[in-house]
Amino acid sequence: MSGVASTATIADMFQLWMFLHILGAIAAFGYGFYAPIFGRAVQQAPQHGHWFASAAKRVSTIVILPFAILMFITGAMLVQTGGTEWSARWLSVAMLLYFIALGLVFLVQRPAVNKMIALTEQPPGPEGPPVELRSAVRRAQLTGVALLVLTLAILALMVWKPALGQSPERALGASFLQQHLRETRVAPVDVLVDARALGVRLRRM
Description:
The chain has 205 residues and is mostly helical. 77% of the residues lie in helices and 0% in strands.
């Protein structure tokens, strides 16, 4: 019975980390899907540009970046409790895309937003917005598109877990859970450990 209880605990922890991971994804990347709508509205009413740039930076600092970092922590815990091997290629690619996204945020997007804030403190003159402002806005827009593409790519990798040349067992990480059940000496019957969450059906041992 202790083995069954231990397995149930692993499944419960996996669900907890999955919940926090999805919550982090919504908070960190949800804004990116509707930010272009705000950006288009600001283009039509440029007098609100400073407010929008300042608000975007505040949202990024208070919500997006903390939850993006939280996603890395919860993702690591999902790997530990869900049985995915760190050597799984889809996971390696997803992590690479994640760090590329963070690099774009810190090295391109935030500097562009800071530039926008500085250049919109005063309303534009008769000649219109300065060239530097248009350049900063363009960088922020392109970075936003790139972040959306990266987000969708990471999501696809997490959902479908493509083998990318590896065996399906290695990509899905079923071996860890099977080994755990062997070590805890669960009775040799068909066991389904929260298949809706894990997506892994354990065969008869």
